[in-house]
């Protein structure tokens, strides 16, 4: 019996380490799929179209909104970001577990439409370290840096809407926690009702 995949939502302030953690998680669990978002933000040096994001312009993004092509979308730090709906739906139907690395506005929309998703919030050890990490990444203008730090305070308040909070202090510890959350979520009885029913009734090995 095939089972629908797990939808995993990862949020947290810019610089908390979401991207770094996702990459490590995907190396450890290659069966996981990462949803590639569409954005109007310009690419950073080294970012690849179709790998990090699908980069597009505002006109095309707004056309995609009108056509209902997004599972969720939001304006974050003055740019549009959105999750292509079709890809996510296909992966879930094929039983694949998929990660969305999205902001808190997008996560709220996913919670409305897909309440059985797992919501994980990544926290930095403290604000000073958050600032250091964004600076170290060297990707932002002064204006974008200030906006991201200013937004962090508001974003951190959203942690109470999530199922899990993971502090990304020691990278290895944080990845282990993410892996553990996913493993535990996949073992939940509620997610395995059909399989367990068959196993009990017909003695099928799980
Ligand atoms: P986000 O995707 O949340 O914006 P990134 O994954 O880009 O954050 O991480 C921001 C910066 O912090 C990167 O330079 C990354 O190498 C660094 N970083 C991430 N996690 C840690 C950690 N646990 N300890 C130290 N530096 C980290
Ligand atoms: P960055 O510009 O640093 O790559 O991302 C900025 C913010 O946009 C981060 O909080 C990131 O999680 C969020 N983001 C990335 N993709 C999406 C998306 O598809 N939808 C939403 N709502 N937010 C996204």
Report what the structure shows.
There is one protein chain. It is built from eight helices and nine strands. With 206 residues, it is α/β, with parallel strands linked by helices. The chain has a domain at 7-35 and 97-201: Rossmann fold, CATH 3.40.50.300. The strands form two sheets. The chain has a five-stranded parallel β-sheet with strand order 2-7-1-8-9, sandwiched between helices. Strands 4-3-6-5 form a four-stranded mixed β-sheet. β5 (70-76) and β6 form a beta hairpin. α1 (18-28) crosses α7 (171-187). The protein is globular. The chain binds adenosine-5'-diphosphate and guanosine-5'-monophosphate (5GP).
Number of helices: 8
Largest sheet, in brief, is: 5 strands, parallel
Give the overall shape, derived from the CA principal axes: globular
Strand ordering within the main sheet: 2-7-1-8-9
**CATH overall fold name of the domain at 7-35 and 97-201:** Rossmann fold
CA radius of gyration:
18 Å
What is the number of beta strands?
9
Average pLDDT metric: 95
Any low-confidence stretches, pLDDT <50, length ≥5?
none
Structural class: alpha/beta
Strand content: 15-25%
Small molecules bound = adenosine-5'-diphosphate, guanosine-5'-monophosphate
Distance between the termini: 10 Å
| CATH superfamily descriptor of the domain at 7-35 and 97-201 | P-loop containing nucleotide triphosphate hydrolases
